[in-house]
Amino acid sequence: SITEAPYRYTVRATVAVSAETVLARVPTLLPAKVTAVAGDRAEVALAADSLDRVAQDLVALDAEFTLADAPAELLDHLDVVARRLRKATTSDSPP
């Protein structure tokens, strides 16, 4: 099925909010990809063919998270995005 189609990038994130909150914040996630875990936390399985899409979904969670099984390419991309965001909030110089 299309919901099980292989994607180029996959990652599991443990998020510091409930599964219900995750689904409300990122309605494009399938409920089967979000699992409640102890302590009002959720585990989310994210997958996409684009690094940007995975980054967008992580940001849309609007909560602290940790990553498991993240490919190095995704971690590098998130680092680049984080540096851009830090620069935008701390620099007076144009891009």
Description:
It contains three helices and four strands, in the order E-H-E-E-H-E-H. It is an alpha+beta fold and 95 residues long. Strands 2-3-1-4 form a four-stranded antiparallel β-sheet. It is globular. It starts with 8 loop residues before the first strand and ends in a 5-residue tail after the last helix. The mean pLDDT is 89.
Task: Name a few traits of the molecule.
alpha+beta, 95 residues, 3 helices, 38% helix
Structural class by secondary-structure content:
alpha+beta
Strand order of the largest sheet: 2-3-1-4
Helix content: 25-40%
Give the strand tally: 4
The shape, in one word, is globular
The count of helical stretches stands at 3
How is this fold's topology laid out?
Blueprint: E1 9-15, H1 19-25, E2 34-37, E3 41-48, H2 51-60, E4 65-68, H3 72-90
